[in-house]
């Protein structure tokens, strides 16, 4: 659920201006005979063989490979950039993003932490905190509290409380989690994910009226989002309000026709009426 801080900051701009000393020990990725790259990727790789010090070419290859879900190959190219310019914040941040795509949390934390050593800022610190929260690591709280103490923009404060809520929720401390999510909302009333988290906690506690009210607020804030309608429908169904549940499921499905669970619920409720 991380929803989250897509930050391409500063990124590879610094790379583009950096001048590297090529030691000819770099390893441009070669096309695999049994699984060749698309021709345009192969052409880019050939260009890199000709101009191994070109950061711009490597950035283009990384983005292209990433778009093709060749994430491991993109990481290899990222490592080539890091070898040349280990002090580049943007390259380390990009490596962290790629590591997340590979579900390699340890590598992601290591990469974002390296970026933070170069340029410590709320975006990268919150990214690290979010990863720690998923691991139930208390360092998530330490990072978030340190950001709040700096009194940054309220957007960062809201997100800090949200991550703290995720951590406490993962630890089973639901009351504290709700307090943090409410603090998040106090700093950003439109933070839809905080409402959803509170609603899910109440739903899991079988407090369906409370959950329904929270999801209703989420709907008022973002009426075109399918998830609040779907979960409000589940509350209606648990409360025995099948007509309201059917309408809410239908709304959710109309907003997102890939929501298979909503379609199944619609069929189930209609079947009980026959």
Could you explain the architecture of this structure?
With 274 residues, this protein is mainly α. Among the domains are: 1-20 and 27-119, Alpha Horseshoe (Serine Threonine Protein Phosphatase 5, Tetratricopeptide repeat), CATH 1.25.40; 208-274, Tetratricopeptide repeat domain (Serine Threonine Protein Phosphatase 5, Tetratricopeptide repeat, Alpha Horseshoe). Helix content is 71%, strand content 0%. The chain has 15 helices and no strands. It has helices at residues 13-17, 39-50, 55-67, 71-84, 89-101, 105-118, 122-134, 139-149, 154-170, 174-187, 192-204, 208-221, 226-238, 242-255, 260-273.
In short:
The chain is mostly helical. 71% of the residues lie in helices and 0% in strands.
How are the secondary structure elements laid out?
Layout: H1 13-17, H2 39-50, H3 55-67, H4 71-84, H5 89-101, H6 105-118, H7 122-134, H8 139-149, H9 154-170, H10 174-187, H11 192-204, H12 208-221, H13 226-238, H14 242-255, H15 260-273
Helix pairs in contact: 2-3, 3-4, 4-5, 5-6, 6-7, 7-8, 7-9, 8-9, 9-10, 9-11, 10-11, 11-12, 11-13, 12-13, 13-14, 14-15
């Amino acid at each position: 659920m991380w929803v989250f801080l897509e930050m391409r900051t500063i990124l590879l701009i610094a790379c583009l201006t950096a001048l590297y000393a090529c030691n000819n020990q770099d390893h441009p990725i070669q096309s695999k005979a049994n699984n060749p790259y698309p021709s345009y990727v192969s052409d880019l790789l050939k260009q890199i063989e000709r101009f191994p010090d070109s950061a711009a070419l490597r950035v283009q290859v990384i983005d292209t490979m990433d778009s093709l879900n060749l994430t491991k190959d993109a990481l290899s190219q990222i490592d080539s950039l890091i070898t040349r310019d280990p002090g580049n914040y943007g390259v380390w941040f990009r490596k962290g993003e790629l590591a997340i795509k590979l579900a390699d949390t340890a590598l992601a934390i290591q990469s974002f932490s390296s970026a933070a050593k170069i340029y410590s800022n709320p975006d990268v610190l919150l990214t690290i905190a979010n990863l720690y929260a998923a691991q139930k690591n208390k360092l998530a709280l330490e990072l978030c509290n340190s950001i709040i103490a700096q009194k940054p923009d309220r957007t960062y404060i809201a997100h800090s409380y949200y991550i703290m809520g995720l951590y406490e929720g993962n630890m089973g401390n639901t009351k504290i989690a709700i307090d943090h999510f409410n603090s998040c909302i106090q700093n950003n009333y439109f933070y839809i994910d905080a409402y959803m988290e509170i609603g899910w906690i109440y739903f899991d506690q079988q407090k369906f009226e409370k959950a329904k009210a929270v999801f209703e607020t989420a709907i008022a804030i973002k009426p075109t989002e399918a998830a609040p309608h779907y979960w409000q429908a589940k509350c209606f169904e648990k409360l025995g309000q099948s007509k309201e549940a059917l309408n809410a499921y239908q709304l959710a499905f109309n907003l997102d026709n890939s929501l298979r669970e909503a379609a199944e619920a619609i069929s189930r409720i209609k079947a009980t009426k026959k």
